[in-house]
Amino acid sequence: MCPQSLLVALSLGSAAFASIPHQFPVNDTARETSVRPLDVTNLNADNASSYSNLSSDVEQWNFDEGPPENATGNLVFDTARSLLQHWPNTRYRNGHNIVPGMIPIGTLLYHGTRLDKIPTEPEWVATDPEHSIWFCRGVDGDNWHLTLAATRPLKVLYFDGNSAAKVPEGTMDVQDIIAWGEPKPDLFRSERERIKDLCTWGKKFGIDGFARMEMDFEVMLCDFTAGVKVVSFLNIATFGQDKLPRYPGPQFFRPGFDVGLREFEAMHAGSWHNRYPGDSRIVLDLTGLISMYDTTLAPSLVAVRAGLERQSTTPSGQRYRLEDPY
Ligand SMILES: *[C@@H]1O[C@H](CO)[C@@H](O)[C@H](O)[C@H]1NC(C)=O
Ligand SMILES: *[C@@H]1O[C@H](CO)[C@@H](O)[C@H](O)[C@H]1NC(C)=O
Ligand SMILES: *[C@@H]1O[C@H](CO)[C@@H](O)[C@H](O)[C@H]1NC(C)=O
Ligand SMILES: *[C@@H]1O[C@H](CO)[C@@H](O)[C@H](O)[C@H]1NC(C)=O
Fold first, then answer.
1. Can you tell me the distance from the alpha carbon of 166 to that of 189, in angstroms, rounded to the nearest whole number?
2. What is the pLDDT of residues 209-257, one digit of tens each?
3. Distance 47 CA to ligand 2 centre (A)
4. How many domains does the structure of the chain reveal?
5. Is the CB of 306 under 6 A from ligand 4?
6. What confidence tens digit (pLDDT) does each residue in 8-56 have?
7. Is residue 1 a part of any domain in this protein?
8. Boundaries of domain holding 188
9. Contact between residue 293 and residue 72 where contact means Cβ atoms under 8 Å apart
10. Is 47 in the pocket of ligand 1 (CB under 6 A)?
11. Distance, CA 303 to ligand 4 centroid (Å)?
12. How far away, in angstroms, is 309 Cα from ligand 4 center?
């Protein structure tokens, strides 16, 4: 994603919510008097009239032919059919979309910590305990696992792609634009600042959290006392040291630190959501989808993408380091 082009879309996130006022009420008076951020000039990368003839004769369609070089509609459709599914968002990991959604009442969310204390600040919760347990990581009995239940529908904003991957190559651009007005690849590890500023931004829309994907799906939950109640807060067994078999493949942990198996479990849990319907604990409202592939909504990225593949690996082949603390 090109930071320069995205700079023009600074207020994109606000507009996502402004477009569905009944769901996320905004101040209509203020809206009318302000410039609507999405009314940017269409940079004319897509000429809509070139598609207008498609439906005239179905037999003329040639499915062996790819879409026109600079078309983006196909990318929007691909996005829409891939939301909340782990595999497509791993394959194409730089998200280009935000979608409002909700987490239904009664849904369980999980948080692992080494502290005997329920968070009083924004923190991360997982949709699967296999993922959250990985973050207990304490020694000498300091492994705490919290289970929360939603007591009302929680309002969330979903960032597609591998949006929780701690890499500087674009996975977090859309979040950064919303939190900070521009992508800040140098701050890819500044998760504490990111969650704090996203939650501050979301307050005026009543947003409870932000859904993202890493090894599995997670929610950046803004307030552990709002719309959720504690189901359990357990002191669980310390991970075995050197006792459990390690999964085959590259090892990211120092020998003797047997979190490798937990990591495998988290990835396995993520794989349950590989395909449709994806992670069904998060229910998206597609009428509020904002896609930066849509050149009528966001500044066109066609010119910066010209001649490039959709990126599926980092240029350096670098892998994010799973042992990095949040
Ligand atoms: C809406 O915005 C206008 C203009 O900024 C402000 O004067 C008014 O107090 C706001 N109304 C509410 C209900 O926040
Ligand atoms: C769009 O394409 C049509 C047909 O090729 C052309 O006549 C028209 O000028 C184009 N519009 C713009 C804005 O480029
Ligand atoms: C539209 O489709 C018809 C039927 O296939 C074809 O004859 C015609 O040339 C097309 N027009 C354009 C502008 O592509
Ligand atoms: C696609 O966009 C690039 C960059 O704007 C441009 O150089 C190229 O000519 C375009 N291709 C077509 C088929 O319009």
1. 6
2. 999 999 999 999 999 999 999 999 999 876 655 555 555 666 655 555 5
3. 6
4. 2
5. yes
6. 333 444 444 444 334 333 444 544 443 333 333 344 445 555 555 555 5
7. no
8. 75-240+250-312
9. yes
10. no
11. 7
12. 14
